[in-house]
Write a structure and sequence with these properties.
The structure is a homodimer.
Chain A (H helix, E strand, L loop, with lengths): L8 E6 L11 E6 L5 E6 L7 H9 L7 E5 L8 H19 L6 E5 L8 H16 L6 H7 L8 E6 L4 E7 L12 E6 L5 H13 L16 E6 L9 H21 L7 E9 L2 H12 L2 H8 L5 H8 L12 E4 L2 E5 L2 E2 L12 E7 L5 E8 L3 H8 L4
Parallel strand pairs in A: 4-5, 8-9, 10-14
Antiparallel strand pairs in A: 1-2, 2-4, 3-9, 6-7, 7-8, 10-15, 11-12, 11-14, 12-13
Helix pairs in contact in A: 1-2, 2-3, 5-6, 7-9
């Protein structure tokens, strides 16, 4: 059900030929209220696609009626014509829904530089068709229409005490061709103010999508949107809702990791006993972005030297000669020296856990990443994307 | 001739079994003076190998009599035993040369964690044998003994007005297995003070080795050493010497790039019209470290969208929508939009040039990198290193 699991939402997914395969490529999600609360977080890349520029403005007032998403073209670096396409998309949806264009968000994903007249015509047609096909069980269709190189749709639902959260996501971390735009829409029928929605979403993404670092490459089109309808009539306990939202986002993030293109390992890097959570994140990210480490994991090689060399590049507080490293439960390095022999470590399962004990504090953070594989190189070199 | 091209230097390269292939693996370079000036720059990685920790202290006073370098083991994360090995190496050389151990530098390269009793015995034997075989034309032998995964030795010589600079280097950028330690020794018979040697070396490395960013992975053992004998009796013009030293270092850096493991393209990223040189370096480095860009070049794909997405992650001053990108002489992106068609760009040659025009100032910097290839993944996953 994904985004239509909570009350007050309708969705659709339609095919208009943006994808050469003929598969669905335009999704629409509409909030029927009574509340029309929206919040969103966006890529921090300064090179922003036109839908990002539009949506950042449109979400400012905390009111969102609908969101239109297309695959098959990123509409990024397509100039003022491309921006007008986004604007016209919002206007088309607004006109058909009887709302203000400024309350319609737009997301696009696909090849950078794609956004010509043909693209515009198809996106507008898809918007019209999608709105015509809106239904209270359209969440599944919508989740299919936003897929690009994804091998499967990503959906999650959490049932709270009288309220529900539903979500859909697309993208293969930041790993797929076309810069792997990550698009996420999460809906809830809980009663939230715009400020609450914004705060909850920022917290949830900070501990989920922001800690998925598949290949270190930042997209121009990433957008995570939360829509709240209030249709349950229930204002949830803030801590409980926040935890549930974070769990839904982490669930979707792990689905993205598990479908990362070309990857053969899903790597959880747990950094513990750090002086601060920021330190833990910095250390974990330095490992997640180290190509030598990632290639070693692909080769089932518990190469702790590459872990230490990676974390040595950070500013985090720790003594490089008093760090322990565990791989899949085996301590391979203790206090900056070799421990268990490499033969003791089994790295053949796809699920891989690396634990780094910094021994200076009590903060912890987990970063999700993937290995560097031949398929990654193939997918990202063999096709123009 | 490499390091023995200038007057006042002797060198040797010997084989003591550190390499399983039986090839030469210990090099010694000795400064016969009259001056015994030395300067060095080291990896900024906080995880430093024992030879780095030793050499950083030994070079402090600006006096260096000799340097001993071994391949076949990094002596990194080998604890106090490993540090004692480095110390004993310096003492052995000092004893045989009749100098102070504190004036002997040590470099090691190879697998992290290698530094046991057998390693120590071989390094000490190699030091003794190398000193016994020192000769004024031993530069070539020394350059062979520091090779690890290098397919060919790297040497450079510059002849100034009465003085000479010679150099040798090993490593495949930061790209090879074992974290690709980059070891460089540059010698000169010019008359330099320790302060001049240090300043000239820091300048030269900043515009050469520091701008070689093959895979973004920082070694634990990198060391670049300059030795000055003063044997020419000539104190060179400072600007002329600095330019010559930078040219020798850049020559060696380009040789490292050209031999980077698994690479199929040598990529020059020229960032021009930046607000500052720092901005230009930051922008160039962001592209050099972007796996999607690097995979695209491997696939001969002039994917300018990935260039813009990479530079959008920097803090440098520029307007992402007013940047031009050229690939091998063809402008593929102008003012944040598509320009020449991809078919107009020929990326088949190994030498690849990407020019990024930021249009905000007049600073320029060039970063050297390589593409991301199947061979890179293979080399760094198929072997424990």
């Amino acid at each position: 059900m994904s985004v239509t699991a909570p009350q007050g939402f309708e969705a659709a997914g339609v095919a208009v030929g943006l994808k050469s395969t003929g598969k669905p490529d335009v999704a629409v999600v509409v909030n029927r209220g009574p509340l029309k609360v929206g919040a969103a977080v966006f890529t921090s890349n300064r090179a922003k696609a036109n839908p990002i520029i539009w949506s950042q403005q449109a979400v400012q007032d905390g009111v969102v009626e609908a969101i239109v998403l297309n695959s098959g073209g990123a509409n990024c670096f397509t100039g003022s014509f491309g921006f007008q396409t986004t604007h016209q998309t919002a206007e088309k949806a607004a006109e058909l829904l009887g709302v203000s264009a400024g309350d319609v968000l737009v997301c696009s994903t696909g090849l950078i530089g794609t956004g010509d007249q043909v693209f515009r015509g198809k996106v507008l047609a898809g918007t019209e068709q999608g709105i015509a096909e809106l239904s209270a069980d359209g969440g599944e269709a919508a989740s299919l229409a936003i897929m690009t190189t994804d091998s499967r749709p990503k959906r999650a639902v959490h049932t709270g005490e009288g309220w529900t959260i539903g979500g859909m996501a697309k993208g293969a971390g930041m790993l797929a061709p076309g810069l792997a735009t990550m698009l996420v829409v999460v809906t809830t029928d809980a009663v939230l103010t715009a400020e609450q929605a914004d705060a909850h979403l920022r917290h949830a993404t900070a501990v989920s999508f922001d800690r998925l670092d598949s290949d270190g490459c930042m997209s121009t089109n990433d957008q995570v949107t939360l829509l709240a309808s209030g249709a349950s009539g229930i204002a949830p306990d803030a801590a409980g809702f926040r935890a549930a939202l974070a769990a839904v986002c982490l669930d979707l993030a792990e689905q993205l990791q598990g479908d990362a293109e070309g990857a053969s390992h899903d790597i959880r890097i747990v950094v513990k006993n750090a002086a601060s959570e920021d330190d833990a994140v910095e250390v974990g990210r330095s490992v997640a972005r180290n190509n030598l480490f990632k290639a070693a994991i692909f080769g089932n090689d518990p190469n702790w030297g590459r872990v230490l060399a990676a974390i040595g590049t950070t500013e985090a507080q720790f003594d490089p000669y008093d760090v322990d490293v565990w791989m899949n439960g085996v301590r391979v390095c203790t206090a900056g020296g070799p421990d268990a022999p490499r033969e003791a470590v089994d790295l053949t399962p796809r699920a891989t856990e690396v634990v780094i004990d910094l021994k200076v504090g009590d903060a912890v953070a987990t970063i999700l990443t993937n290995d560097l594989t031949h398929d990654y190189v193939h997918e990202n070199s063999a096709y123009s994307s």
